[in-house]
Amino acid sequence: EVQLVESGGGLVQAGESLRLSCAASGITFDDYAIGWFRQAPGKEREGVSCISGGSGSTYYADSVKGRFTISSDNAKNMVYLQMHNLKPEDTAVYYCAAEPQYPIQNPYYYCSPYGSLRNWGQGTQVTVSS
User: Fold this and answer.
1) Which helix (H) or strand (E) holds 107?
2) CA 16 to CA 9: how far, in whole Å?
3) Which residues pair with 78 in a beta bridge?
């Protein structure tokens, strides 16, 4: 059984930083694409950043490029999202999700609506005040 547990959300002021963590179990990291998604009230879910567990290649949405960094610790089955220079528009519930990445190993695909990731965490709230 795949389990994903997010942590690290909170309330910060604009310009501050947060690091989200996703603890994954029941998966072989090298075989999965893992991503961070977010959903704000009244908005569609957005693929923020995805990483290929095998190659380590990454994808970032334009809205976070240069401010967010996704990384993984395969030995610990952990994925992180380091967020710098947070903005009020980053306020959302952030979810970790995972999907076997074969035959497509492009992290952009899994962050897109076509990725259809089937394994999701419960989410962690990030609130950025202005």
Assistant:
1) helix 107-111
2) 13
3) 23, 73
